[in-house]
């Protein structure tokens, strides 16, 4: 094979053309050491040069150059000088760092002083066109092998690679003015003295201080300053607990007394809820950026100890802020994520979040990731914590450049952060800054790290703090005097002492000061709803008809849809003429009516555009033109709010976190996440536990996110049957033993007091109403909806427009309305149930001719429990046995939740009997016959009027 063909076979013809400049000849070279032959494009310069000199020079300047590719492996990144940031002490033999390795390239020492003409593909020459080989090597090593280690050559875009090379190879580019150095010193002073102050005042308190990586504060401020300079107005941050208080104080600029008062053990809470520890709280602040004199809004999103759980939440909130500002390119709103090294490498949600970064409906146009690389995870050595060389290697999957930097070189850190901010603004892509540092104390201030890392911590105890090292350097070079440095320290210490004095006057903690997502104007001054009422959720019939008409048409001319879809649209048109709606049409009408009222609707999840069960079809696809689509919902009204429906990546944890963050940004949006199947929220359980269930209690964070979870026992196996309602009900905060007072505003007050709302609608109309109620309520609560599968096409699961027109509302309980209701004194059994099983019960009752003896009542809202309506139903059928019937197994579903609440409302005077499947380990069977046998068994029990005779409850 010829050398040119060899090159093309290895790189591909197109890559070879892109990489080779016009003056390149392609040659083949067999290295004397073992290994396969290598082929490189070279630039021939300077007559009389030996072949091997040219070969080496070309190799250096080729985009496959070892310095650019692997220089970071030998860069001096560890401030302690005892570990290798890449977990490997091996030095690549083809990196020339000493004269004795010249023989590797058939070079003599004298060859190093020969001059070479520089090709246009390099920036190391600056204004010089020729350099000696010795100087070339020196400059490459200074760029790639010192305190900054660059990983970018895996990026498959030549322009982006060249941009990075220019930022780091250009001679003298990393220069700072005296004022910039003084500013950096002042920021280091604030960062370190804040930690010192906390250590002096509260030596026995956990605070997860930043000691060992104090440079993170000026690093973040540099990113914000540079971004503000380029037009950013809103920065949303997410981070773990280490350094959070310092960031709140010196980046967000929260009042110090608000932080210090958190350490008072006698502080009383002014708000309901459990609150959270001080190093989990968030903050929102609008202020002037002093570096640019421009207004900037900074928010730090509250985060639990699930370190990386906040990542997608920040991204969703950022996306929403960009959407509402019309910032489609991310030039006004951006996100910064701070990570720990162990969590960044170890937690899968990091990978999920990265894979959202370039998806059209999820991209935030680039995030700056800052990794606080402690080189340890709690007590775990990094060699036991990851399989990759660096903790940041996950970022390579999206071609994000990774800038490793020694955190004890403040100027290198600041320069890298400035470049990172520029990169994000220029290319709208993620970038990672890896601050290789150390943790001066243990995992927290009460922890003893010498138990497990004795050698590391012996070195840390000897380590000179970065502030002293940098101050000594600036004093030596005359940038500042010792007196000025000491005055800067005294000035900040005085600020802390004064704030500490003011903090002693605070006896009440108002956690609203710690909101990361305030909604101005939504609540009244005291944070309470404007009223405890909810208007009727029905809409005019002409609106229903208009939405139904659009839902059954194709608004675009010349748009050819699938023939099967044509039948579905004709079916919708027929239902509209008959004034009825199935599940899909009722959802269409709920969304469409909210869009008319100016409410943005966003529906996200796996396959939501069509619907997992092929029922929704909100995005139509032209059968003749690739990627031509139509969203009829966006053609309903001339000035409607926009509708966003987007298929997500095959992610639950990341995507649900994203949608939660999106819902944080505004109360005037209906944000829904749909699981492909019911229990597919399993892998998103962390978001549910840490943010959705507990968000208001911990952070007074109202959030109206809606979870649509397909649920129903239909013999389809465990993973495709149950949405695990028992989990949501177990986490509901209404008291099973408290008999409520049925006041006039009981229904709305009960919703306001709960942590979330759990419903299982049995009619399309009720689904329509509960979606609209979610927005019309004067507050926001998460809404969990167990949605059907078989009911999507069940002939009985349709609703008349009469149940959806003006004046109608959501029914928390749907009572019996048949023959049994007309003669309640003759009813022998009252069955309570929820969801799909109602239709099985009605069919079985009819087949046994028990319509007058058995009444069936549906609980549509399960939590908060409708005590008032349940009591009303039970009182109507005084002589009837009470039965709870569910299709789920006894240890799952709803029974354990509803049973004690029935006992409370009935004063334990009447038992509530259980009918359903026996307890089991798995939520459903995958055997169709077994499913049908168990269904028949519990239906027989439900209508056996002697089933409970002689039994005690």
Automatic annotation (TrEMBL):
EC number assigned by the record: 1.2.4.2
All residue ranges annotated as the Transketolase-like pyrimidine-binding domain in the record: 581-794
Cofactor(s) the protein needs: Mg(2+); thiamine diphosphate
Gene Ontology CC: one annotated term: oxoglutarate dehydrogenase complex
Cellular localization per UniProt: Mitochondrion matrix
Catalytic activity line of the entry: N(6)-[(R)-lipoyl]-L-lysyl-[protein] + 2-oxoglutarate + H(+) = N(6)-[(R)-S(8)-succinyldihydrolipoyl]-L-lysyl-[protein] + CO2
UniProt KW Calcium keyword: yes
Assigned keywords, A-Z: Calcium, Glycolysis, Magnesium, Metal-binding, Mitochondrion, Oxidoreductase, Thiamine pyrophosphate, Transit peptide
Subunit record text: The OGDHC complex comprises multiple copies of three catalytic enzyme components, the 2-oxoglutarate dehydrogenase (OGDH/E1), the dihydrolipoamide dehydrogenase (DLST/E2) and the dihydrolipoamide dehydrogenase (DLD/E3). OGDHL/E1-like isoenzyme may replace OGDH in the OGDHC complex in the brain. The presence of either ODGH/E1 or ODGHL/E1-like isoenzyme in the complex may depend on its tissular distribution.
NCBIfam families: 2oxo_dh_E1 (TIGR00239), PRK09404.1 (NF006914), PRK12270.1 (NF008907)
Family label: Belongs to the alpha-ketoglutarate dehydrogenase family.
UniProt name for this protein: 2-oxoglutarate dehydrogenase-like, mitochondrial
């Amino acid at each position: 094979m010829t050398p040119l063909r060899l090159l093309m076979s290895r790189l591909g013809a197109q890559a070879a053309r892109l990489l080779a400049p016009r003056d390149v000849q392609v040659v083949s070279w067999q290295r004397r050491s073992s290994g396969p032959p290598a082929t490189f494009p070279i630039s021939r310069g300077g007559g009389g040069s030996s072949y091997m000199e040219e070969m080496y020079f070309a190799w250096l300047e080729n985009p496959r150059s070892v310095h650019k590719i692997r220089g970071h492996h030998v860069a001096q990144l560890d401030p302690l000088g005892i570990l290798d940031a890449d977990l490997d002490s091996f030095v690549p033999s083809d990196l020339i760092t000493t004269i004795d390795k010249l023989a590797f390239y058939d070079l003599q020492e004298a060859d190093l002083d020969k001059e070479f003409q520089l090709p246009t593909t390099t920036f190391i020459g600056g204004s010089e066109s020729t350099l000696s080989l010795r100087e070339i090597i020196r400059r490459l090593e200074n760029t790639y092998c010192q305190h900054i280690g660059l990983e970018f050559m895996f990026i498959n875009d030549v322009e982006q690679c060249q941009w990075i090379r220019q930022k780091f190879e250009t001679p003298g580019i990393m220069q700072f003015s005296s004022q910039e150095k003084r500013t950096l010193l002042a920021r280091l002073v604030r960062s370190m003295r804040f930690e010192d102050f906390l250590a002096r005042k509260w030596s026995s308190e956990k605070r997860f201080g930043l000691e060992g990586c104090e440079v993170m504060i000026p690093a973040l401020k540099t990113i914000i300053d540079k971004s503000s300079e380029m037009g950013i107005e809103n920065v949303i941050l997410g981070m773990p607990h280490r350094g959070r208080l310092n960031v709140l104080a010196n980046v967000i600029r929260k009042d110090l007394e608000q932080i210090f008062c958190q350490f008072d053990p006698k502080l009383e809470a002014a708000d309901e809820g459990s609150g959270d520890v001080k190093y989990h709280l968030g903050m929102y602040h609008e202020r002037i950026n002093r570096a640019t004199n421009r207004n900037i809004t900074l928010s730090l999103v509250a985060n639990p100890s699930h370190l990386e759980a906040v990542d997608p939440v920040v991204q969703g909130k950022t996306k929403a802020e960009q959407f509402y500002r019309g910032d489609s390119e991310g030039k006004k709103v951006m996100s910064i994520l701070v990570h720990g090294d162990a969590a960044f490498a170890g937690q899968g949600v990091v990978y999920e979040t990265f894979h959202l970064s370039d998806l059209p409906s999820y991209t935030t146009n680039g995030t700056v990731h800052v990794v606080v690389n402690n080189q340890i995870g709690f007590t775990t050595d990094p060699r036991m914590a990851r399989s990759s060389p660096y903790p940041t290697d996950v970022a390579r999957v999206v071609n994000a450049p990774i800038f490793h930097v020694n955190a004890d070189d403040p100027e290198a850190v600041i320069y890298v952060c400035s470049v990172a901010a520029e990169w994000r603004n220029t290319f709208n892509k993620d970038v990672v800054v890896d601050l290789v540092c150390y943790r001066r104390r243990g995992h927290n201030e009460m922890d003893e790290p010498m138990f497990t890392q004795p050698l590391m911590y012996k070195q840390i105890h000897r380590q000179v703090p970065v502030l002293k090292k940098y101050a000594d350097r600036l004093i030596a070079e005359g940038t500042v005097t010792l007196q000025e440095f000491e005055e800067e320290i005294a000035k900040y210490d005085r600020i802390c002492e004064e704030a500490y004095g003011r903090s002693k006057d605070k006896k009440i903690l108002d956690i609203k000061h710690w909101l990361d997502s305030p909604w101005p104007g939504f609540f009244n001054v005291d944070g309470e709803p404007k009223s405890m009422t909810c208007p009727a959720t029905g809409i005019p019939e002409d609106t229903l008809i208009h939405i139904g008409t659009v839902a059954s048409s194709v608004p675009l001319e010349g748009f050819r849809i699938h023939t099967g879809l044509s039948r579905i649209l004709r079916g919708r048109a027929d239902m509209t003429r008959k004034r009825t709606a199935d599940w899909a049409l009722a959802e269409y009408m709920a969304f469409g009516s909210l869009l008319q009222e100016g409410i943005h609707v966003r529906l996200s999840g796996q396959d939501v555009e069509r619907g997992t069960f092929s029922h929704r079809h909100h995005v139509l696809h032209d059968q003749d033109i690739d990627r031509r689509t139509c969203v009829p919902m966006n053609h309903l009204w001339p000035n409607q709010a926009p509708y966003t429906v987007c298929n997500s990546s095959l992610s639950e944890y990341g995507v649900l976190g994203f949608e939660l963050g999106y819902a944080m940004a505004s109360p005037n949006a209906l944000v829904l996440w749909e699981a492909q199947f019911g229990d597919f929220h399993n892998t998103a359980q962390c978001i549910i536990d840490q943010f959705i269930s507990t968000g208001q209690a911990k952070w007074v964070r109202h959030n109206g996110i809606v979870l649509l979870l397909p649920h129903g026992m239909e013999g389809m196996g465990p993973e495709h049957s149950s949405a695990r309602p028992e989990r949501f009900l177990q986490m509901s905060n209404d008291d099973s033993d408290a008999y409520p007072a049925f006041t006039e505003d009981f229904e709305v007050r009960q919703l306001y007091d709960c942590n979330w709302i759990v419903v299982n609608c049995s009619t399309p109309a009720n689904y329509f109403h509960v979606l609209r109620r979610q927005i019309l309520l004067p507050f926001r609560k998460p809404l969990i909806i167990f949605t059907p599968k078989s009911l999507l096409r069940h002939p009985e699961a349709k609703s008349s427009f009469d149940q959806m027109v003006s004046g109608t509302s959501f029914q928390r309980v749907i009572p019996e309305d048949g023959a049994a209701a007309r003669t309640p004194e003759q009813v022998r059994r009252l069955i309570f149930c929820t969801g799909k099983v109602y239709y099985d019960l009605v069919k079985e009752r009819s087949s046994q001719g028990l319509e007058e003896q058995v009444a069936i009542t549906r609980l549509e809202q399960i939590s908060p429990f409708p005590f008032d309506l349940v009591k009303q139903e039970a009182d109507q059928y005084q002589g009837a046995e009470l039965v709870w019937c569910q299709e789920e197994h006894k240890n799952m579903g709803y029974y354990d939740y509803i049973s004690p609440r029935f006992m409370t409302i009935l004063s334990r005077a009447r038992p509530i009997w259980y009918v359903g499947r026996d307890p089991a380990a798995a939520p459903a069977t995958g055997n169709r016959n077994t499913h049908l046998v168990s269904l028949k068994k519990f239906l027989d029990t439900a209508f056996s009027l002697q089933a409970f005779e002689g039994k005690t409850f």
